[in-house]
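Field log, afternoon session.

UNIT: design team B
ACTIVITY: writing a sequence onto a fixed backbone
BACKBONE:
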């Protein structure tokens, strides 16, 4: 049985995840995200501001120091596409990922990703992460403080 051809939304999600796994966000910056791209991290109680365009990429690049080789490898647990409204909801978990000091990094994310009209570029990412894990790592100085 052959593997089904990925949908346009699935292709975008695969490229998005691959960029983090490689530690190189250049593909996001150069062709996957729109010029007015924005990235939001929830819950809002964490106090992390929404970042837009280059501001996000510089911030994300600055956080790369926290991970071994700057990489965060993820596995898709579930992907729900809602093409009519140009969105995907993706549940991922980190796999085979370590902090720079060798500590295993176990994190789960839920992303709501909004795409442009062509379904080929990301306009907005709303990320919900395991805030308990993040706060614990932040208090130990192991991830970026905000």
């Amino acid at each position: 049985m052959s593997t089904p051809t990925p949908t346009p939304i699935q292709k975008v999600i695969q490229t998005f995840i691959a960029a983090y796994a490689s530690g190189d966000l250049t593909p996001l910056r150069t062709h996957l995200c729109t010029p007015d791209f924005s990235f939001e991290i929830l819950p809002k109680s964490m106090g992390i501001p929404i970042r837009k365009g280059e501001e996000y990429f510089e911030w994300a690049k600055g956080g790369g120091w926290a991970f071994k080789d700057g990489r965060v490898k993820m596995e898709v647990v579930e992907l729900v596409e809602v093409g009519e409204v140009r969105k995907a909801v993706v549940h991922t978990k980190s796999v085979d990922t370590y902090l720079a000091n060798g500590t295993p990094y176990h994190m789960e994310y839920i992303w709501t990703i909004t795409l442009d009209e062509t379904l080929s570029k990301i306009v907005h990412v709303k990320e919900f992460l395991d805030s308990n894990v993040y706060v614990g790592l932040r208090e130990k100085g192991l991830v970026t403080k905000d």
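LOG NOTE: DSSP finds four helices and six strands in the chain.
NEXT ACTIVITY: expression trials, pending approval
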